[in-house]
Structures
1.
Amino acid sequence: MSEELAFAECDRLVREFEQVIKKPVKRSSSIYYTGVDLGTACVVLAVLDENRRPVAGAYRYADVVRDGMVVDYIGAIRLVREMKEELEKKLETELLYAAAAIPPGTDALDGGAIKNVVQGAGFEITALLDEPTAANQILKIQNGAVVDIGGGTTGISILENGQVINVDDEATGGTHFSLVLAGAYKLPFSEAEIYKRDKKNHKEILPVLKPVIEKVASIISRQAEGYNVQGLYLVGGTCCLAGIEDIIGKKTGIPTYKPENPMFVTPLGIAMSC
Ligand code: ATP
């Protein structure tokens, strides 16, 4: 499949997922696959049916994980269990199987905790993979780098002929963007976070955020060093910021692309890997 086609397929899936978040679809299915994305800023559950089509989903902004580390273990279990039960009620079925993801490189440190949270919430865990590699289950990039800019970290998965040849991750993500905005606008963090997420404000805040975006770009350049990366494919909630792709493309010198809605690509990819 060409990369353009893969992008179109990704956009179609994400659009379908956005619909089922609002209104779940009760299709009969012999099995359901759940992707659990326990993020620094946001916890997302994505449910697919036996044909790997989205049927339900939910997301909550929460403070249970920081940079891939579970900082509120009990809170994380409670939240995932609540979201699981809410989706089970809507779908009138039990959700048994889940896959989860962690930022690259944090498996030795905290992969166990993420796994325990998902199991503690009542799932049988079938896969644990890194976030950008999960995103590529949807993007299906053959050559290039998938860059996941989440709330706390920027992770990269470098692909050659469809194979992951390196993964890397470094702190700096959307939380840092909100901190910059809070400082510049003299707003509490929570208000800066909401202001930042509103698409109407993106044009105005882009110049304020340019230095921190350039910092992310320099992280990407470092991560890509020594590899022949011909294209960057942006995913993760932070990439919803309009214009971020232009600044990253210019600073790294690598052609940079992003799907229509980069926010839900990783959770869908996790569910696809279940
Ligand atoms: P991590 O992967 O680092 O653990 P995460 O999984 O919580 O974090 P995502 O859910 O991919 O990360 O993205 C969350 C980030 O995306 C937050 O910082 C949030 O403010 C930002 N974000 C979400 N929507 C928008 C938007 N419309 N505009 C700008 N930023 C956004």
Note: The first helix runs from residue 3 to 22.
2.
Amino acid sequence: MTETIPNPLLKRAFLTPNRPMIRFKDRDYSFKEMYERALKQAGHLQSQGVKKGDYVAVLLQNHVDSVVMLLSLQLIGGIAVILNNRLTAEELAWQIEDSNSILFITEEGFRDKLARLQLEIPWLWKATIDTSNSMSPAVQDEVNLDDVCSVMYTSGTTGKPKGVLQTYGNHWWSATGSALNLGISEDDCWLCTVPLFHISGFSILMRSIIYGMRMVLHEGFNEGLVLETIETEKVTIMSVVTTMLSRLVEALNHRTLPSRFRCMLLGGGPAPLPLLEKCVEKNIPVFQSYGMTETSSQIVTLSPEYSISKLGSAGKALFPSQVKIADSNGKEIEANQSGEILVKGPNVTSGYLNREVESRKQFVDGWLKTGDVGYLDEEGFLYVLDRRSDLIISGGENIYPAEIEGILTSHPDIEDAGVIGAADHQWGQVPVAFVKKIGSVAEEEIIHYCSERLARYKLPKKIYFVDELPRNASRKLLRRELRQMLDK
Ligand code: ATP
Ligand code: MG
């Protein structure tokens, strides 16, 4: 049976019209105001031919107008193909075409980048949209939970990006799972400095609508501004990735966060143990989490009460979801044995856009194969080790590059690091490291530093100093490019 619910924005604007929805720069916008703005914009989009079920590509910065754009599409049932604004023109063109979008909406800030972009479909510049004479749009009063709300391409860390179909049901259950875990309070305020084009940012917007919660939107991440905003805007929750968290820890210095601040939701990639230890020391309430574009945000989360006893774990699956570890045949394996992480739940995508065969291969009996390796301890806490494709096997021992990278980047003279396996006649493979240094540290010193923190077989056998590590538009390390560098 397919379920329908009232269109989320309509319902929210009806329930709590005057509550502030979003703070951007120096001003609050209520749910009613955002709804009214979105309605006008929806009329304009409709006059441009957008109908229910059409894919519309959007390339936008974090801005209140971008939120209005995303909401207006939801009002008329348009599907937002949300593009990463760090992609190159070629990558953008590929995703726009791949998604069969009928319209491309963007803004001035990208004009230079877009100069070389050739598209078959019409463009709309955000600033030139005139909503004064908008027609009255055919608002979808209800949404079906199986209707696709958004499409987001995966980061393309392991291969070509894939367009993930995210339904209203996926977002609804993701927001519900998060609320059942964190609780919702009248005073909650979620700070969004992560991009709206990532599921990390977009999911904050969906939670704001579903919970009736105020969010503060920043154009980007600036640690000084974040600390000030947490105080002045009475922020209680914030989403971060590792680099943001380590910059915040630095910037905090000896200060502490206000006691009302209750959750630093950390996700997007591996969390180095030394950083988590520092946060425990400084009393920063870090909720480690594991998730991906395919799970519409976090699916596994660790509360701070376990920060010490389960240090390094990503936690347990949220209420509506499940996680298990399986061998290469999809058979579940026992506690403390590592294997592929499989996930299931109503927040998990049903597949990738226009990739039926690939989508089917990704699922076994309703479980999504994540391509990540990890294990569950005897109490069911998940430990994410690394991506299956990046595992190094040395003399029969499994080595996970993320663990070594976490140690390397905890060295004060190392800004960034990447580890891969190099062929070795004795061991099969040995780990080697690519390092971006900020100080004058030498290779021997780095290896000595690692030897005090890592088992002998995990020590990098060679350190290559580089100016920059190859990272994709989501700032994720591209170890496949490191492997190419080694082959040259
Ligand atoms: P692609 O699927 O195209 O290779 P991607 O997997 O990097 O790209 P995302 O959906 O942005 O695209 O990232 C999800 C991935 O991030 C997870 O599959 C996992 O590898 C990594 N990740 C997320 N949370 C954690 C975590 N807590 N620890 C380790 N890795 C994590
Ligand atoms: Mg992935």
Note: Residues 154, 292, 371 surround magnesium ion (ligand 2) (CB under 6 Å).
